[in-house]
């Protein structure tokens, strides 16, 4: 099954060219498994190489959810080898998005916990549906797991030091209004206007000459990217060691059960 729809080189009625729209469609909740992560990375790599493409809007084709974050089933009851491969794919996704030369806009049309929030925060601009039922944030500690330093860095670069302490230690999930207040998202709009607003915002970003914007973006983000680049292998080892612990596996199992019970 295709996990993603991609429309590159989109020409809208308003004459916006060179903008791709990536719609995640991995039912039910766009949890980021190895397959979806790989598809996303390949698509982004192709767009980066396509000289006619200058911008990317990422959104969801699933109702009510942008992305449920990392697929817990990729980390629960799996071999250390599998966990290592999975983590490399998570790193790759982050590196590609955070370091992208394209203008990237997240059109967040549903809830976006943990890895979903991380993915949105790698973008240059975030527009979220103004629906109080939706939430966004890095809730890892609520699962009994610890977000790695580059999740923390991304959050810190987005909302600042003190807010990161509260958000990350408490594993807070924010309503769209709260997320706007702390700067986790940049704009709230009615649900049916998320994509059109993203297109409007894109026009503004594309008015800036690419080379000037790209060099500026790189200057701001490079130190954070370099930190992971020079620690990639250790980061994989740390993840595998941490996630393989009996106590952590037990926490993930309890959390998965809670998700199922909540549904019942
Ligand atoms: C150790 C180093 C750090 C590792 C870092 C990890 C970062 C992460 O991203 S961990 C993942 C954290 N994600 C979450 O906590 C989100 C959990 N999901 C939800 O809160 C909700 O599903 C939702 C708000 C996203 C959507 O709610 P909705 O009511 O529409 O759907 P549900 O009925 O809850 O879910 C449907 C179905 O999907 C399963 N599921 C949901 N999220 C995940 C997930 N992240 N991984 C795997 N599976 C997930 C859920 O259990 C349901 O399954 P069943 O239909 O089989 O019951």
TrEMBL record:
In terms of PROSITE patterns, this protein maps to: ENOYL_COA_HYDRATASE
Task: Reply yes or no: does the keyword Transcription apply.
Answer: no
Question: Mind telling me which residue stretches traverse the membrane in this protein?
Answer: none
Which pathway does the record list?
Lipid metabolism; fatty acid beta-oxidation
UniProt KW keywords: Acetylation, Fatty acid metabolism, Isomerase, Lipid metabolism, Mitochondrion, Transit peptide
Gene Ontology BP annotations: fatty acid beta-oxidation
Q: Does the keyword Lipid metabolism apply?
A: yes
Query: What SUPFAM superfamilies does this protein's entry cite?
Result: ClpP/crotonase (SSF52096)
Q: Which family does it belong to?
A: Belongs to the enoyl-CoA hydratase/isomerase family.
What subunit structure does UniProt give? Answer: Homotrimer.
Q: What is this protein's function?
A: Key enzyme of fatty acid beta-oxidation. Able to isomerize both 3-cis (3Z) and 3-trans (3E) double bonds into the 2-trans (2E) form in a range of enoyl-CoA species, with a preference for (3Z)-enoyl-CoAs over (3E)-enoyl-CoAs. The catalytic efficiency of this enzyme is not affected by the fatty acyl chain length.
**Protein's recorded name:** Enoyl-CoA delta isomerase 1, mitochondrial
